[in-house]
Amino acid sequence: MPVYACYSRRSGGLSIGINLFPAEKVCTFDCPYCEVFPFKGSGAFSLAKMEDELKRILPENGAAVKDISFSGCGEPAVSPHFTEAFSSAALIRGELAPAAELVVITNGTGLLNRETFDFLHRVSLPPVKAKIWLKLDAGTEEWYKVINRSRVPFDVLMSKIGEFTAGSPAVIQTMHCSVNGAPPPDCELEAWEEAALRIAENSVRNKNPLYAFHIYGKSRPGAGDPCCGRLPAEELELRAASLAARLATAGLNIPVRVFP
Ligand code: SF4
Fold this sequence. Notes:
Blueprint: E1 3-8, E2 13-18, H1 47-61, E3 65-70, H2 82-96, E4 101-106, H3 114-124, E5 131-135, H4 141-147, H5 154-167, E6 171-175, E7 178-179, H6 186-205, E8 212-216, E9 228-229, H7 233-249, E10 256-259
Parallel strand pairs: 2-3, 3-4, 4-5, 5-6, 6-8, 8-10
Antiparallel strand pairs: 1-2, 7-9
Helix pairs in contact: 1-2, 5-6, 6-7
The site of iron/sulfur cluster has 9 residues, from loops.
């Protein structure tokens, strides 16, 4: 199904998801906590089917729809259908659910492609004002190799995230969980906080303040279980409080939200 309805704790209600990968998972990361289990679906993504399903499901759910989100079984921004599907969904949103937000849940690797970078920048601004939820799970290359296991070099991705958030308002989202029985080490937490602060400062300096930080925990089964484990909510709260204090000291009014 290219379109599905689900409850999203981070959206705070009903989210209409769009899955650009109905045939198999396609992603540039290999996060050990990933909730997409290996599967083989039949058929490729169909724009016409997505449009039909959106036109059916949006009126059915009316004002309850909080957002239309691109996530699904992989990294949406690397799909060849992404820009076309997003543009079409934005038009349908305008007609049938103008109060619903458009969300792109992304690991950021699509930003390495100039056209995708520019597209995401454009739609993050008025009139579309899509919310780009950018993953920042690590502040060090060591933890990045553990938590995201990507071939994309850490420094290249960090540089692109910095460049993008300087010109486009966005949400920074971070998974906080244990891997192989161990939580992120203290040096990683400190490096992540420094990176988060730098991104926040840069976004404000360039007059595109981040919408928020989302620190979220492992709440559903993952394909790699039991490799990753849930951490106590207090640990997520502590991490958020520490960042919030640094942001406040720097005079930055950016919320840090926790989803244990
Ligand atoms: S970026 Fe998302 S889809 Fe890709 S491996 Fe990580 S959790 Fe799974």
